[in-house]
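Aim 2 progress update. The chain analyzed this quarter is reproduced below.
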Amino acid sequence: MAFFALTMVNGPSWDTSRQRREQRGWDEHAAFMDRLVEEGFVILGGPIGDGERTLMAVEAGDEREIKARLAEDPWASMGLLQIGAIQPWTIWLDGRQKSPTH
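Predicted structure tokens:
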């Protein structure tokens, strides 16, 4: 397994008059993303900058796996969210793995 930095962008059906959590299908999308976190696929994720994009750190075998998993997102089929970029990420620093100090 490898880590990837994944950028998601709003799709053609995104309603610019609504906030992210007000988009249609939010509950289904949120439940889907929560499952990806529970399964260990998504490590970190959330909107960045002005909220037009989201950034996720994911752990997967390869880009094909990422594309296949995210194709199951209800927002993907609704045209609300799509992959912007996928880049391999070599993580050298990880504060989540802090060891106790003595």
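The domain at 2-91 is CATH 3.30.70.1060 (Alpha-Beta Plaits). The chain has a mean pLDDT of 93. These observations will guide the mutagenesis experiments scheduled for the next reporting period.
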